[in-house]
Amino acid sequence: MRYIIFDLEATCWQDVRDYNRMETIEIGAVELLEASAPHSREFSSFIRPVAEPLLSDFCKELTSIRQSDVDKAEYFGSVFYEFIDWIGSPPFILCSWGGYDMTQFKIDCSRHKVEFPERFEAHINLKKQFGNNFNAKKCGMKRALSIAGLTIEGTHHRGIDDARNIAKLANILLPVMETSGQIPEVPTTE
Q1: What is the pTM of this model?
Q2: What tens digit of pLDDT does each residue of 50-77 get?
Q3: What is the DSSP string of the chain?
Q4: pLDDT in tens, 73-98
Q5: Could you tell me which of 39, 119, 108, 59 has the C-alpha nearest to residue 79?
């Protein structure tokens, strides 16, 4: 089974948690050809926001994404289709750290009138799996890496770097899930 480990960064503001206001500004992803294999290839792209095109100071500081990065980027629809093309044909399973990323994809698809692919419904919430396996509920990625004896690499809250780090955790969790039959069924055709 192929696993696509992805992480989104979105517009954000200090003390504001309105997901309908937030908009994806980066997709980072890596592909695992097998549950315990290192990642084989990567996808990374910035996205130009339209609802609130100016990034807040909080967002720029948290993500290290500059205004110029998003100003010269393509809009969500174009980048999302590039991401789908990069993933390629089924079978595959999307994996993210928590449920936020999948929810944000759905919100952005609706906002930009882009059809959300049915094959994306096969999704593994690695944060939930980590909590169950390590008895560490509501554990952030950085803390999970520490609990697992792994070090964080790159810049935290950058989509591609977080995807690489989540993949290291996936290499621990996915083999256990495969062995215990916890991997969701996925379509093998378009």
Answers
A1: 0.95
A2: 999 999 999 999 999 999 999 999 999 9
A3: --EEEEEEEE--BTTB--TTT--EEEEEEEEESSTTSPP-EEEEEEB--SSS-SPPHHHHHHH---HHHHHTSBPHHHHHHHHHHHH-SSP-EEEESSSHHHHHHHHHHHHTT-PPPGGGG-EEEHHHHHHHHHT-TT--HHHHHHHTT----S-TT-HHHHHHHHHHHHHHHHHHHHHTT-SPP--S--
A4: 999 999 999 999 999 999 999 999 99
A5: 108
Whole-Å CA distances, 82 to 27, 45, 76, 77, 113: 11, 9, 10, 9, 16
Phi, psi for residue 42 in degrees, rounded to 5: -135, 155
Write out pLDDT tens, residues 19-61.
Answer: 889 999 999 999 999 999 999 999 999 999 999 999 999 999 9
